[in-house]
Amino acid sequence: MTMKTKILIFCSVIIILFAGSYFYDIYSPFDFVEGNKSIIITIPQSVSAREIIKILKSNRIIRNEFITRVFLKITGWDSSLLAGEYEFFSPLSTKEVLKKVHLGEIKGIRITIPEGYTNVEIAELLASLKLVDKEKFVALSNKEEGFLFPDTYYFYKGISEQKIIDLMREQFNNIILPLAARKDKEINLDLRECVILASIVEKEANNDRKMVASVFLNRLRKKIKLESCVTVMYAIGRHKNSLYNNDLRIDSPYNTYLHYGLPPGPIGNPGRSALESVFNPAKSDFLFFVSRLDGTHEFSRTLQEHVTAKNKYKKISKKI
């Protein structure tokens, strides 16, 4: 047997052994936790594939670091592993583990952001779940008031404040921008102005929002002050069941009893329904509305009609 043949046989044996080890390590299920239980691992932001492999190996979720690196190179997944909190149920193969991290199948915390919440309220909700630092979230989202879309999200522990803001803004873009593109041509407001008005409609009405939106739009066209109670409450900084004359005189650019036009910014983050009501409001010539105390409103064209309606429902409220 020649030396060349011996070398060829030796190399063939090495390749066969490596191939066997490779397929075993990558595709064979691995019992990394006894009793078919699970283990939770956090992959930090901005770490390399090599560091992720070390985290997985230190938690005994994969068998061999080198073979895992080879697999990631072959698949191209080495540049697309995602940060987050993952729950792995034993047994799993190395491929199944890596696929989970590649696809970002995180163990998310389910959270619903209510429609109309301000950025501060969102920060408080997220901070109560230990997902963000409240002050940092408020500071970073300062210019995004109105554009953090209220929805149900799955956030993982360790996610950054900026990432949450980006995800919520992306959701706004995905859902609302197509609706904005189809808004009524008679609505002479840009997107930001529509969001500002929608944030008011969101807090003023649960039902008949399209009609409420038409009232505010009619007042804007006629250059009549909006006189919205919810803008005053935003200026005060808290909800009040009743506003008094002193409240209506509060010195704030958000006080629409004092200032004409829209306030300088949104007073919360409106949901889809409120935004749709502004993009495509009801057609009306109403200029006033008052609560019927049942979730709906009575609409009026003149101040005299409005005063009559207010007095009627004030008497009813006293009887309740």
Offer a concise description of the structure.
The chain has 320 residues and is mainly alpha-helical. The protein has helices spanning 3-27, 49-58, 65-75, 94-103, 119-128, 134-140, 161-180, 191-204, 209-221, 229-236, 245-248, 272-279, 303-319; strands at residues 38-43, 84-89, 109-112, 152-155, 288-291, 297-300.
| Global outline | elongated
- Treating each run of at least 4 consecutive H or I residues as one helix, how many helices? 13
Summed up, the domain count is 3
Beta fraction of the residues? 5-15%
Quaternary form: single chain
Strand order of the largest sheet: 1-2
What is the distance, rounded to the nearest whole angstrom, between the alpha carbons of the first and last residues? 106 Å
Mean pLDDT: 88
Number of strands: 6
List the helices and strands and how they pair.
Elements: H1 3-27, E1 38-43, H2 49-58, H3 65-75, E2 84-89, H4 94-103, E3 109-112, H5 119-128, H6 134-140, E4 152-155, H7 161-180, H8 191-204, H9 209-221, H10 229-236, H11 245-248, H12 272-279, E5 288-291, E6 297-300, H13 303-319
Antiparallel strand pairs: 1-2, 3-4, 5-6
Helix pairs in contact: 2-3, 5-6, 7-12, 8-9, 8-12, 9-12
Can you describe this structure?
The chain is mainly alpha-helical. The protein has 3 domains: 21-103, 2-Layer Sandwich (Dna Ligase, domain 1), CATH 3.30.1490.480; 109-178, 2-Layer Sandwich (Dna Ligase, domain 1); 184-286, no CATH class. Helices cover 49% and strands 9% of the residues. It is built from 13 helices and 6 strands. The strands form 3 sheets. A two-stranded antiparallel ribbon has the order 1-2. A two-stranded antiparallel ribbon has the order 3-4. Helix 2 (49-58) crosses helix 3 and helix 8 crosses helix 12 (272-279). The longest helix is centred in the first third of the chain and has 25 residues, at 3-27. It is elongated. The N and C termini lie far apart (106 Å). The mean pLDDT is 88.
